[in-house]
Every structure is written in C-alpha cells, then in structure tokens.
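User: If only I could read backbone structure tokens as easily as an amino acid sequence. Underneath my words sits a plain record pairing an amino acid chain with its backbone structure tokens. This is the protein in question:
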Amino acid sequence: MGKVVMYGAVSVDGFIADEHDQPGPLFDWLSNGEVPLDDSGVLTVSRASHDYTRPYWDSIGVTIAGRRVFDLTDGWDGKPPSGVEHVVVVTHRPMPDGWNPEAPFHFVDGIEAAVAKARELAGDRVVEVAAGDVGGQALAAGLVDEVRMDVVPVVFGSGRRYFGAVGAQHLLADPDVVLPGNRVLHLRYPVRR
C-alpha cells in the first residue's frame, strides 16, 4: 500500500492561497528554470526541482481534494491534473449537475472515507492529499504519512492556511529533504506516529 502524502506550494508564512483564493506567485517556480517538468513545454524548473518533483509526480496514483478546490478549478474539466489517474473529492454535496459520471472523479463524504477510497484506487502508488482544510483533516485523523511543501519566498499575511484549521499540535520528524531550487525550497517531513 502506498504512502499518504500531504502536498502543496506554500508561502513562507504558511498560506496556500491569499484571502481571495488566488495562489499569486506560489507557482512561479514552475516556470523559472530551463528543465521541462512535463511534455507541455510550459512547466520549466531548475534541475534540482525537476529531479525531486518529477519522480514524486510520477508516483502519485490518486489525489484527494476538497470541494472548494474542485469548484475553483471547475473540476479540471473532468481530467485529473498532472497525469493523476483519479481524484477523490471530499464533499457533503452530490456531484455537480451535468457532471460526466464516467470522469475519474469520486465524490466522497468525509476524510476517512476519502482516504479509504483513494487507497483502494491507488494500490501501491502514492495517495496525495491537497494541502488546506482537507489535508489538515487528514493529518488530524492520523492518516498522513508524509508532509511535502514547496516553500516559495513570498509573505501573504493572510489567506488559506497550509494545514487548514488544525486544532491541535502534531509533531513531524526532522525533514529528510531540504532542497533549494529556483524561487522554491522543497521540504519533506515524515509524520511522527
């Protein structure tokens, strides 16, 4: 069974979006290098960022996101992002009217059910949980094995927090990756159990 990894780009002060749900410069590092990260030709990063990020992206079988992200992205037009095979959407509402039921999106009520469904779909591949409220819920429920952050040198001051509204302290192990790239610092923390 694959790991459950909480992942996202984050400002130095801990935000994944500003107060208007905009990422601002959080994804600028994805076009700030010379090495193609995918076949689109749009994403170009430093060699260090490529060698760290590409293998991780290739390991992801399923992404878990909240309904807010799903709605903000218009459900990625029914195509999971970054070549991921399935998306599990944590929501208390049914799938949107007119949504293609054949699209590889699964609408699940509650974080425990979402992680169970994602593990089933992912097999031995990684289950990625988007940072924010859903990621914080998964961490609080003890379902996250690893936290990955792409820390971008910007201060938002307010907005959507990386860990959402986690209401208790959670200790992470020492980082096992601290890797600078162009306009980004990649960090990886195992979660203490």
About this structure: The domain at 4-190 is CATH 3.40.430.10 (Dihydrofolate Reductase, subunit A).
